[in-house]
Amino acid sequence: MGPAHVVGAAVIDGTGRDPRRLDISVEKGRITRLGASSAHGERLDAGGLTMTPGLIDAHVHLGLSSPIRTHFSFGMSAAEIAADIFATAGAALDAGFTTVRDTGGIDGGVVTAIARGKVRGPRVLSCGPVQCQIGGHGYYGAEWEPTELWSSHHIPGLCALSMMAGNADELRHNVREAFRRGASFLKLCVTGGVVGAHDRLTDTQFTVEEIAVAVQEAAARNTYVTVHAHNNDGIRNAVEAGVRCVEHGTSLDESAAALMAAREVALVPTFAVIEQLLRDTAGAGLAESTRDRVEGARERMTTALAVAKHAGVRVGLGSDLIGPAQERRGEELSLRAALETPMEALVAATRTNAGILGLSGRVGVIAPGAQADLVLWNGDPLEDPELFSDPTNAVLVIQAGQIVKDLR
Question: Which end of the chain is least crowded, N or C, by CB within 10 Å?
Answer without folding.
Answer: C
